[in-house]
Specification:
It is built from eight helices and four strands; from the N terminus they run βαβαββαααααα. It is an alpha+beta fold. The chain has a four-stranded mixed beta sheet, with helices on one face. α1 links the parallel β1 and β2. The structure holds glutathione.
Length: 206
């Protein structure tokens, strides 16, 4: 059976759980990372020398890097659903997965760390405000893209929506004032209805 290591409070673990649920896979999730530790044990480091979550073991095939895991699961179990067969649709989905990892997540991250993982008396309002401004700029880019599409890669939900869905879910749950991005809001509302999204959208921030 597919094994997934990682705590559900990790946005990167959330992507993998959402993807596996979307595909209807049977899997076992093993707590690791944060307060659960595990990631520094020799056994874990042998699977992922970075000591980070998530990691999967699919019948002996071990893989780390959340977006690579989503791509792998989508390719193996979601041909022509999560994994688009059309090369251009797939490239579009891929592009937004990379953008989530290198642009959107780093923009939102500092606000999340300050507002959720830092004691109120230790919070730095300038970091929160700078992160908010950066995140709003990125969400403006996503909003313009979604103005003419149902989902990030076109008419259908694909693997490309999952990492972005996790980041945007986190953004909408942060206790701060947000600008309006109507197309992102419409897309996120549709994602929230999906059975595969239930575990992630049902979580509180921690
Ligand atoms: N690029 C990696 C980043 C993984 C990562 O940074 N994971 C964080 C949680 S989001 C982690 O393992 N932190 C240490 C811990 O939880 O103990 C991926 O996407 O899988």
């Amino acid at each position: 059976m597919l094994k997934i290591w990682g705590r559900l409070t990790s946005v990167n673990v959330q992507k993998v759980i959402w993807c596996a649920d979307e595909l209807g896979l049977d899997f076992e999730r093993i707590e690791a990372g944060g307060l659960y530790g595990v990631v520094n044990s020799p056994e874990y480091r042998a699977m992922n020398p970075n000591g980070l979550v998530p990691v999967i073991d699919d019948s002996g095939f071990v893989l780390w890097e959340s977006n690579a895991i989503v791509r792998y699961l989508a390719t193996k179990y979601g041909a022509d659903s999560l994994w688009p067969s059309d090369v251009q649709v797939r490239a579009d989905a891929d592009r937004w997965m990379d953008w989530q990892a290198v642009s959107l997540n780093p923009a939102i991250g500092p606000a999340f760390i300050q507002l959720i993982r830092t004691l109120p008396e230790k919070r730095d309002v300038a970091i929160i405000e700078n992160a908010r401004i950066e995140a709003e700029k990125k969400l403006g880019i996503l909003d313009a893209h979604l103005a003419s599409r149902e989902y990030v890669a076109g008419l259908r939900f694909t693997m490309g929506d999952i990492p972005l869905g996790c980041s945007v879910d986190r953004w909408f749950k942060l206790p701060l004032a947000r600008e309006s991005h109507p197309h992102v809001e419409r897309w996120y509302a549709a994602l929230r209805e999906r059975k595969g999204a239930a575990q992630v959208v049902g979580l509180g921030l921690a």
